[in-house]
């Protein structure tokens, strides 16, 4: 069977322009989510996992912006760097203003009006071209309004703290009905059933024509409520008919996370992005939520991006893994490749820092020494080089490209560059790696 990617991220760069400078949160990340699979994004705090997925949802707030790269959903480009283009255009306009001012000053003395007008025209023409380029690029991208159709409907997101997504002043019922009615239409079958009850022939035929053209009405309040209860049942909320009438604070933490998953799934998204959905929960509840996500994946086949800093959790649920560090992609592969044949020293470091039961005893954990790079001033080479036990000169100078290990595994480490002389020198100096 052909593999189909439901999400593709290519060379994504997302930054925050703070008063201290540009925080380069995501620097050239490329990965894909196969339809029907669960992709785990793993990495320490601050590695850019959340910013990458917020970029997919286009939920990056000021002063953040996607600078470049592409995000495709089902083959369609959904990313936009309009905000960054606006920023660049503002800088260009400022430069134009300064150049025109300087010209004016110059001609105050020379007083050659004709030459002044000619030079002025040249400057305006030059900047007009640049600004037109920006305008054309911005116009070719999906607008915010068009993107809103994807958010919730096609791609939904759940967060670590469900209270940030649930409104405390509305009941679960109100919130679910509102979201479902915004996104869900009745089935064609149901619409035809209703249309066939219309006695006036002309009206009936017109209605059927509309239905066949895909014009379906949105679900009504009663239908939305039934759907909400079905989803609460699916996620394991007991007595959903009663619990639906309650407010979020009347739910326990685990139940709130379940309710949020029900809310996200009730719109039948093709992709669910779960950002550390179990981190705030205690261990037993964590396991239950993971079980639930697995069940949903089995039963509905929703593709999932699962973000976590815990490699152990990844093993429970994911089919594929992306390892991020310092805003960059370090390694990607299938779950078996990342667990049994990790190639990047950072991935190996992560392995050593997860608890493993060794004959009933907990093995001593080895945290990776050092701290992640400052993304305001990221190193020009591999972001892991300052903590890497195998770092070579080349690692400090240049970040490695992704080297292919197998058809499904790629790793961004110079040690995999068989042709590089440095690798041989390194091996000679330190023995086999
Ligand atoms: N609004 C913001 N303004 C400035 N910098 C930001 C903002 N949001 C995120 N960042 C920076 O972007 C970088 C990546 O953050 P991100 O939240 O993606 O990391 P993460 O891997 O998801 O970490 P965590 O596991 O802690 O959520 C961090 O250095 C962070 O400080």
UniProtKB/TrEMBL annotation:
Domain ABC transporter stretches: 7-351
Highest taxon of the lineage: Bacteria
Main location: membrane
GO cellular component: plasma membrane
SMART domains xrefs: AAA
Pfam family, one: ABC_tran
UniProt-annotated location(s): Cell membrane
GO MF annotation: an example: ATP binding
InterPro entries, per database record: AAA+_ATPase, ABC_Ni/Peptide_Import, ABC_transporter-like_ATP-bd, ABC_transporter-like_CS, Oligopep_ABC_C, P-loop_NTPase
One biological process term in Gene Ontology: peptide transport
Entry keyword set: ATP-binding, Cell membrane, Membrane, Nucleotide-binding, Transport
Membrane topology: Peripheral membrane protein
PANTHER family: DIPEPTIDE TRANSPORT ATP-BINDING PROTEIN DPPD (PTHR43297:SF2), OLIGOPEPTIDE TRANSPORT ATP-BINDING PROTEIN APPD (PTHR43297)
The family this protein is said to belong to: Belongs to the ABC transporter superfamily.
UniProt protein name: Oligopeptide ABC transporter ATPase component protein
Organism whose genome encodes this protein: Haloplasma contractile SSD-17B
